[in-house]
Amino acid sequence: MRELYALKSVSAWSRMPNRIIDFHTHAFPDALAHRAVAQLLSEAGEVRSFLDGKVSSLIASMDANGVEASVLCSIATKPSQFEPIFRWSQQIASDRIIPLASVHPQDPAAVEHIHQIAQSGLKGVKMHPYYQDFYLDDPNLYPLFEAIQAERLLLTMHTGYDFAFDRIDRATPKQIGDLVQRFPEMKLVATHLGAWQQWDDVQRYLLGKPIYMETSFSIEYLGVERVRRMLLEHSPEHLLFGTDSPWTDQAATIAAHKSIELPEEVQEKYFFENASKILGLS
Predict the structure, then answer these.
(1) How many CA atoms lie within 13 A of 185 on its CB side?
(2) Percent of the chain surpassing pLDDT 90
(3) Structural domain span for residue 195
(4) Among 55, 67, 162, 182, whose Cα sits 20 to 30 Å from the Cα of 142?
(5) Looking at the predicted structure, is the pLDDT value of residue 247 above 80?
(6) What pLDDT shows up at residue 45?
(7) pTM
(8) Has residue 7 been placed in a domain?
(9) Under DSSP, is residue 259 helix (H, G, I), strand (E, B) or coil?
(10) Upstream peptide bond of 246 is cis (omega within 30 degrees of 0)
(11) Residue 93 maps to which CATH number?
(12) pLDDT-based confidence at 42, cuts 50/70/90?
């Protein structure tokens, strides 16, 4: 992975917002964390882990870096994983850790699980087209999206390419834009600044539209100036800060994004206010 770009001075950082919600993190049950992290690292050779994959380590990193809350994304890579992820998500949910459940699109009970998630009080769902083997524009997914929209749940979707997989177009900016047109009330979050390593098409199809975009794993590749331009071209109410911890270092990622020096009113929305609103936090 390329190194993070040079950071601004401490005096510049001090003008940035103090309140931060990290909208994209990962962790695993303690008994599985070591094995899960090792397996994922073996699948994506360009990535390294900065934490051991445990919730306690994520919270320690949050404490050290002024992060008030983190959205924790789990992925059900097969239908049978819904129940253990769902139960664990309920167990770890707190003011600091906001877990998203996960449904597998090949699960015949997927729509029923959406209603179950809504009734539980969890905030939403994480899906991943590569690990779950689907295409974002598959009409077979429409009943699932309809249920998510009807229940007013958040859907955080891995968008763009992925380190560990061949570059097949499963969740492109064009597909994202079409999906939002079909389900305009669905609270869809496109990760990695709209679509990882498909940023030219993000600019073509997504910027300026009312689509939530979370920014993890973007500045490392695009640099401060291009990320700044893209953020300023997008709706300020639809920007969400994320790190993808443990696959990045929260401290370095926060510092890099603070060095962008967005206008103050945009900074506050980007680092905290938009996330607080979409998550329904007080």
Answers:
(1) 8
(2) 90
(3) 17-279
(4) 162
(5) yes
(6) 72
(7) 0.93
(8) no
(9) coil
(10) yes
(11) 3.20.20.140
(12) confident
